[in-house]
Amino acid sequence: MRLLLLLRLALPFLPAAAQQPVAHLQIDAGKIVRQASPRMYGLMTEEINHSYEGGLYAELLSNDTFRGNWMSIAQWGLALKGDAVATSSLDPKDGPSPALPESLELNVASASPASPAGLSNPGYWGIAVRPHTTYTGSFYAEANPAIGPVTIRLIANQTGAVLASTQVALAGAGWRSYSFQLRSGQKASSAENHFELTVAHPGTLHLQLVTLFPPTFDDQPNGNRPDLMEKLAAMHPNFIRLPGGNYLEGNRIEDRFDWEKTIGPLADRPGHQGPWGYWSTDQFGLLEFLEWTQQLHVEPVLAVYAGYSLKGKHVTPGPDLEPYVQSALHEVEYVTGDAHTPWGAQRVRDGHPAPFPLHYIEIGNEDSFDRSGSYPARFAQFAQALRKKYPQYKLIATAPIPQSPAKPGDVPDLLDDHYYKSPEQMFALVHHYDAAPRTGPKVLVGEWATVSATPTPDFGDALGDAAWMTGMERNSDLIKMASYAPLFVNVRNAVWRTNLIGYDALSSYGSPSYYAQCLFAAHMGDAIPQNSLTGLNPSARFFYSVTESRRERLLHLKLVNATTLAHPLQIALQGAGAGAHVATAYSLHGATFEATNTLRNPLAIHPVQSSLHFTGTVLQHTVPALTIEVIDLPLQ
Predict the structure, then answer these.
(1) CB 99 within 8 A of CB 269
(2) Which residue range is the domain that position 152 belongs to?
(3) Is the pLDDT of residue 7 over 60?
(4) What b/e string do you get for 203-234 counting C-beta neighbours within 10 Å, with b at 16 or more?
(5) Are residues 208 and 256 in the same domain?
(6) Buried b / exposed e along 368-400 (16+ C-beta atoms within 10 A)
(7) Which residues of 422-434 are buried (b: 16+ CB within 10 A; e: fewer)?
(8) In this structure, are 168 and 287 located in the same domain?
(9) For residue 194, what are the contacts with CB-CB under 8 A and spacing of at least 6?
(10) How many domains in the chain?
């Protein structure tokens, strides 16, 4: 951080009226020099910062499967009214399913309708309650019906006011599943609320898998949070890289994302330890990932576990690795197979008859960290099996693969590169791919971010991100796909420093980098016309890219001015015609590198649209200091 602060202090500070000399940008729309990737920008995240549980996945109750620790059952406390007396404990031998063999045991010694006893849950740092809203929930219970009925309430923390309430009658003995609905009144929206489940009679009640959902995106059961889905849709993504990063590998082999244990009824999912310090219930499992892509009208980039985990353990290539190869083959069949295949039929039974589209399979994640040197052999074993059964899919490697000694089929189609840099480092990296060879594998930049601010990027980070994106666009014949990471952060659990979209239990916001990505992705062409920039001050932190949408006859010009000087441009545009033109400009501006968006001020920095009028083939334009611009220029 000290180095980053010194770098920022080293930025030139000059009066706002000062500006750089005029630079000349020449664009010949009639000469296409490279193709641009039609699916450049996508999404990637993993279970980090409570990205899924406590984030995208709309479940409101934390630890809904009653995981215990050395102190208690996390997030679940006793709710005792009046003179009620009760205790709670974890019963390790009584649960509703083999996957959930434990349950919470509530022993009520004394209770009445006036003095009920039960449990409370705070949600994920609060539970958002909005006016006139219906909440749906469910739970598994084993109890004598005489202890019931079960009363369920949403209660305001500060006042104790009951915001919504319902009762559920208990049926006969044995484990049973129950569902309920709650309807809130007219109280103003707030997240300072908690959940209570109580009974009014003495007895013993066993509970497991207690859930509560608000309205979800597209009213999808077990679905996603609408405000976050809407923000993702505004990013105009083309794919989702899933299940994402270290979450695929786990700290240990047994902690990997074992996809077969994440499908089917929620009660059949045992969950697993995530790599970022908390338990994952896997209620947001493989099918939920795939339905997420469907809701956003994008394709999955499916990463399969390849035998390496974060603490350094790996599976030896050969017979030991073969079960993992077979699991990957089954996973692809679950995604793409029809009802006549075993795993396609399983997906149908899980509630999704249609196969999902798929073009890319990634083998592992960040296997360059594997010090054993086993990845080339592990990749080859997976590649040979996948290409034999699924020759139509392109394979992505996560570490360089020697090409000369390998069989042709063992060479990956793409290589996944990752970059996490400071703003200054990102500025220096912009031309990294300009002279890269075009003869080997293509590139997926599967994780990248300018990293300095927390919990979300400030405008200095956005400038670094936008500069980097101009470099990726300029080389988008080689870089086929790119996805920022991490995508999400619950601001109450920022275990990773810089993340694109922030939220708490009630609301969310896009960072300056988020808006830069929205603009870049929404204005991306399919070709790169001939262009050159001259007269640029060598010390200027000024970056640009040009792509062309040939069908729409539209040029997309991206301009990034990361200095405190305005930057005048003379844009000579061959192909615009001699008449009058109106270009559309979208601008992001920050007064300083440190300017940013927050939950309290979510739109401090946001895109501003304007029109640029010019005649003929020359546009005189000045890019203000500390500004990111996207300009759409019409062609004739």
Answers:
(1) yes
(2) 77-213
(3) no
(4) bebbbbbbbbbbebbeebebbbbbebbebbee
(5) no
(6) eebeeebbbbbbbbbbeebbeeeeebbbbbbbe
(7) bbbbbbebbeebe
(8) no
(9) 120, 121, 122, 123, 127, 154, 155, 157
(10) 3
For tokens 């104790």, the residue is 160
My answer on whether 190 and 279 are in the same domain is: no
**Single-letter amino acid, residue 155:** I
Q: With b meaning 16 or more CB within 10 Å and e meaning fewer, what string describes 20-51?
A: beebebebebeeeeeebbebbbbbbbbbbbbb
> Residue 538's pLDDT band (boundaries 50, 70, 90)?
confident
Give per-residue burial for 276-314: e unless 16+ CB within 10 Å, then b.
bebbbbbbbbbbbbbbbbbbbebbbbbbbbbbbbbeebb
Chain position carrying tokens 């991100």? 465
Query: Of 149, 183, 213, which one is at a domain's C-terminal end?
Result: 213
Q: Taking residues 81-94, what's their average pLDDT?
A: 96
CATH number of the domain within which 365 lies: 3.20.20.80
Residue 438 is encoded by which pair of tokens? 């075009």
Which among 213, 248, 263 is the end of a domain? 213
Q: pLDDT value at position 14?
A: 39
Average pLDDT over residues 40-46: 96
Span 289-308, pLDDT tens digits: 999 999 999 999 999 999 99
Residue 165: inside a domain: yes
pLDDT digits (tens, 9 = 90+) for 584-626: 999 999 999 999 999 999 999 999 999 999 999 999 999 999 9
Three-class HEC string of 280-326: ECCCCCHHHHHHHHHHCCCEEEEEECCCECCCCCECCCCCCCHHHHH
Domain assignment present for 6: no
Beta bridge mates, 459: none
Question: Which of 413, 192, 399, 207 has its CA nearest to residue 301?
Answer: 413
The pLDDT confidence band at residue 13, using thresholds 50, 70 and 90, is: very low
Torsion of CA 589, 590, 593, 599, to 10 degrees: -120
| Res 406: pLDDT | 62
